[in-house]
Give the backbone structure.
Amino acid sequence: MKLTVLYVFCLLAPMIGWTQKHQPLFFTKEKVVLLQQRIKVDKEAADNWSDIYKEATLQLTKKNHTKIDYVALAYLVTGEKQFADVTKKILLDLTMQQTWSNQEMLKRQPAWESDLKTADKCLHVAIGLDAVYDELTKEERKTIVEGLMRNGIRPALNEWFLPETRIHSLNSMGHNWWTSCVYMAGLACLAVKDDVPQATQWIESLNQASQEWFNFSGDLLQSKPKTWDAAGGMYESVNYASFGVSEYLFFRLAHQNVFPKVKQPDIPVLKHIPDFFMHVGYPRKGMLYSLNFGDGHKNVVGERPLKLLWALGIQNPNMLWYMNQVENQQHREGLFKNAPLGMLYHPDFTKAPVLPSLPTSAIFKDMGWATMRNSWEKDATLLAVKSGHTWNHAHADANSFILFHKGEPVIKDAGNSSYATKEYPEYFFQSQAHNVVTFNGKYQPKEQQYHGSPLDGSVSELLDAGNIKYVMANGTGPTSTIYSRNFRHFLWIGKVILVIDDLKAYENGKFEWLLHPEGESKKDRGDISIVNKNGAVLVRPLYPETLVETGYNHDFPEKMILSEVLAPKEDNIKEQEKYYCIAYPEQVRQTKFITAIILKDSLNDTNIPEIERFKGDDMLGVRIKQNGKVTEVFLNLQADGRLMHLNSIKTFNGYTTDAYLTALSYAENNPNELTDYFVGYGSFLRKDKQVLYNSLSKLFLIAQKKDKTFELNVSGQPIMHTSFGLEKKPSSVLLNKVAVPVEFTNGFLQFNVAK
């Protein structure tokens, strides 16, 4: 029955307005005709169209301007005059208003007459006007165009763009607001270009200005960050990255439809943006999640910008995989299959790959984010680290991390609340809401929320060799009011993630390791057990001390002190949830925290790796035994910056190195034969007089022997000349996952790496 009704709709459509000279922005003739054909033969398309038509019919009485795209498309597809009449009614009601300005913004000095609400109305009036352009009388069109100019286009261009009147700059408001206010006005200019002679020049100027926004590099004077990471990320959060770039892409798509022969500005980062959204996404058996660093939410995804990029011709199969993970109506800003633009510009998902062809780790150095996962399968494990800029939507969370496991967040970011609540600036934005190490209860200064962090944090040296992964975060800059040294290392070995904190303050005080669990959590002997549905981990403090395994804390005053703190919940601030503070009881100036996160394969997993602490001369050690393999990790205390000019050479269990951090792996039944090793900031590794690794500069690397293949992942310097001692010449060599010629001389494998 549904399909029969839809056939009637299509038969009623007489190709409304296609003789007009006015070029459509989004609802082009080709797109509408294709939709009419699809809903005749495709049940899924018919069902999605039925949802759109139902919403359009509802708006015949509600007349909500944010749904004008439903009414407009219903008119173009069916030809039913009732939809044209309601579209005109919404347009006239909006444009006959005296102003679209926000009363709060008008109180600023100077007053702001253009904001996100103004931009929103520009978008919807442009879509509606475009659809019924030829159905308007001369007087109706004049009223609508004049109102759109008065309330939308002129205020935006005057305040955000035109040199004679502009009050904003990329330095002051160059984040997501800029693209929204500017390019929604640009979209409106495209809609009125046949009625407003100046519009064509404005459109061209706006088109070219996009390059300046995408390439904005920040500034030192007022601590503003670079807008876009070279690898496609945006520091503001997944939420605002999706919104900010989409506002521009709407304009770019409409411009391409109206001026198909005009060359678009060359913006290289557009090709990398899809990879960013994929790397910060977490595929699950259920709704796709995203990292919620900053003012984001785990339900917000990048479906809208990816669909717009696909429509613009920036396409790769991985994008189809990503968009196919998104559920219909997942969040408010999607272009879903049962929404007008989403349906018209929906790609063919039949060509979507089962899994993306992407590396399992990614680093966004400009903005200070990194992700590492064990697989792209659903419900895998994803570790994410952030240590970049703090300001505006980017929280005070230098060196914080998030962990998803078995389909759920198990160690989380506390999230955010409405900006109007007191909890947002006092808790959610601040460091206490994140997984960091505080000193005397302090971490980043509160003023960074408003004035930025003049010294940014960073992530670097990402290595991913499959069963061994590593990344380093440096939060010293944003926390430099209390720390002269604040490094956090993540060394992921099999089922164990070691979080290694290297901390030095300016005075003696109390260090506390903050942990925000998701789900049910409790102390279980020397561990903190976290269970969230199918995801379960154990968090085990190892250094500077362990937790008391019994309940008699007063018998062990040297042990770590575990306390629970109650704080507001993200989705309901009237409720509270707990997070943990793990405190070292001694007042010290410098310390090392080493914490093991043990990944459980199931809720009842009994195959838990054995983890043993051991110490030596200027060394903290951790021994991990799992599935017949042993890995010994050595933290060289002489390599933490305390030496000037002298090298930090130490011998650990027969191995001599100057490395800051070393991990040596071997089969439990063959301790004399290394299967792989990790060197973190070291220039050599020797066993007795045998040289295993040599470099003039200190590097970060993972070396693995797999059958007859030698695999090396290395980072640290732009030019690296390294050699590795091997008993036999390998048949093949992979350097940073790329096959390279085998250069084997006198028992040494030689590498020359130039980045």
About this structure: Residues 700 and 715 are 5 Å apart (CA to CA). The chain is about 30% helix and 30% strand. The first helix runs from residue 2 to 12.
